[in-house]
Amino acid sequence: MIALPAPAVRIDPDAASTIQRAAERAYPNEACGLLIGCSEEGGWRVTQAVAGANVHSEPHHRFEVDPRLVFDWMRRLRGGPEVLIGHFHSHPDGLAEPSAIDRDSAYDEHAIWVIAAVPGGRFGAIRAFRLGEGGDSSFVEIAVKRET
What we know:
single chain, alpha/beta, Cytidine Deaminase, domain 2, seven-stranded mixed beta barrel, 7 strands
């Protein structure tokens, strides 16, 4: 049996820069925003990252993308080739991996989660995840391919 390649997410350079800038600017709080893109052979492509306000009452440990931003972009993208494919957020002084809080908050098994580590306020690693099958709150890592 031939093993199929795991899905990957390609992140366009401008989108990657937006995530990095947002993560560094928000420090020591969590940055957050939306991932706009499309599915493609072998995974997904993030063509645009849209930084948004973290409206959670505990922004140092949790994030919540401003719902108005989500609805505005859903309307803007309606009927077009690109869609809202997920969101990004940062982990100040943490790892670029889902936290227990992320696992408890996860609900959309179709969304891509891009997480950026921001040790000491400087951008570090970036990784991507999706919920496991059936929305069991376990995350599966997706390979990140940053375009140049």
